[in-house]
Amino acid sequence: MTVSSLLTFYSCKTTEANYKAAYDLATKNKQVNDSIDDSIADEAIPEQWAEYVAFTVECGGYKSDLKQYNVVVAQFRQIFNAKSMRGRLADMGYKSALVVQNGKPEYYVIAQSFNTKEDAVAAVKKIKSDKNLTIRTPYPRILLKR
Questions:
Q1: How crowded is residue 73: how many other Cβ atoms within 10 Å of its Cβ?
Q2: Fewer CB within 10 Å, N- or C-terminus of the chain?
């Protein structure tokens, strides 16, 4: 083994000092994040996007239930899967759950719909804490009605 390969091998070795430095940095970042004002953090919870969507009649719900801010919990390519998820939501107490579709078509399952952003953000927090719901990333998100 050459001297340069030995130096490379030993210089990459992790040390207790490296672990401590990484731990201290992570702790400092956590303290900074924990100190962020809750009202600011709440605004950052859901990702929002706007898209043209159409109400899907055969999936239940009412077109009048679709408001400006819609909490989407899932997206499917098959209408059968969207209808099934909507039914499970309704059984869990989300009686106003509905399905909309975009032009691709993709089907979005909306758990709840609101007139204000604040109500939608509060619903996202509630849905995230609902232990009966299993939701995959990046959901829940807020869909703005166009």
A1: 24
A2: N
Closest CA to 113 of 58, 57, 61, 66: 66
Q: Are strands 98-101 and 141-145 parallel, antiparallel or unpaired?
A: unpaired
CA 65 – CA 57 distance, rounded (Å)? 12
Strands 48-51 and 69-76 come out as unpaired
Token code pair at residue 61:
């719900």
23-37 pLDDT per residue, tens:
665 554 444 333 333
Q: For 24-76, what is each residue's pLDDT tens digit?
A: 655 544 443 333 333 333 344 456 777 788 877 888 777 888 899 999 999 99
Average pLDDT value for residue range 94-115: 91
133 contacts 127 by C-beta, under 8 angstroms: yes
Q: Which helix (H) or strand (E) holds 110?
A: strand 107-114
Task: Give the alpha-carbon dihedral of 45, 47, 53, 54, to 10 degrees.
Answer: -20
